[in-house]
Amino acid sequence: MAFWCFTLPINLFKLYYGDDWGGLFEAITGYGLGGSSMALFGRVGGGIYTKAADVGAELVGKVERIIPEDDPRNPPVIADNVGDNVGDIAVMGSDLFGSYAESSCASLVVASISSFGINHELTPMLYPLIISSVGIIVCLISTLFVPDFFEIEAVNEIEPSLKRQLIISTVLTTIGVAIVSWIALSTSLTILNFGEQKDVKNWQLFLCVAVGLWAGLIISFVTEYYTSNAYR
């Protein structure tokens, strides 16, 4: 669904812009701006709503009725929990989507001014979207099949299972991106680097993606090690 929602506007704009690939993908950058705007409004609005409900619950519960914190007998606690779900889950996903859309749009703009963009080679120009498609397929595989191989029988097994899914999805995505880079890209490419032409290889583009994948995995484990109570 996300892939089609991103590909359909490109094809519609293509009818208007024709062979102006640079103008086409510059127009698509508004897609990333819209995603970030929704995340901003969600963060601000959700934060105000959550804090208002939290303060109301504290005043009514502790001051007037002497009810413990987060007690279900206090109605504002329900609104507080709803605000926490909106701000910490829904808006976080919206924020992540905004970052994803901006990075995809930036990659498309760079691709449109490269050699394959000038020669109107569509498949290399959609290389960022193909990478996203590989990620969607890998997420489906790791979500549907990995729990069958690593069954969870206790609460303390949830975290290791999530870590295994993260590692397996990173490995599968790296393999998928390597295959896509070999098929969709030619051996040598020309891109514009601050107005200067620069020749790059397809394996160099794959290396950039692979470094980002594994850097995210390493950062998550390092952050957990220094912030989690389990490693005190």
Automatic annotation (TrEMBL):
It comes from the Eukaryota. GO terms for molecular function: diphosphate hydrolysis-driven proton transmembrane transporter activity; inorganic diphosphate phosphatase activity. It is found in: Endomembrane system. Keywords: Ion transport, Magnesium, Membrane, Translocase, Transmembrane, Transmembrane helix, Transport. It is a multi-pass membrane protein. InterPro entries: PPase-energised_H-pump. It is an enzyme of class 7 (translocase). Its EC number is 7.1.3.1. GO terms for cellular component: endomembrane system; membrane. Pfam families: H_PPase. The chain crosses the membrane at residues 125-146, 166-191, 203-222. This is H(+)-exporting diphosphatase.
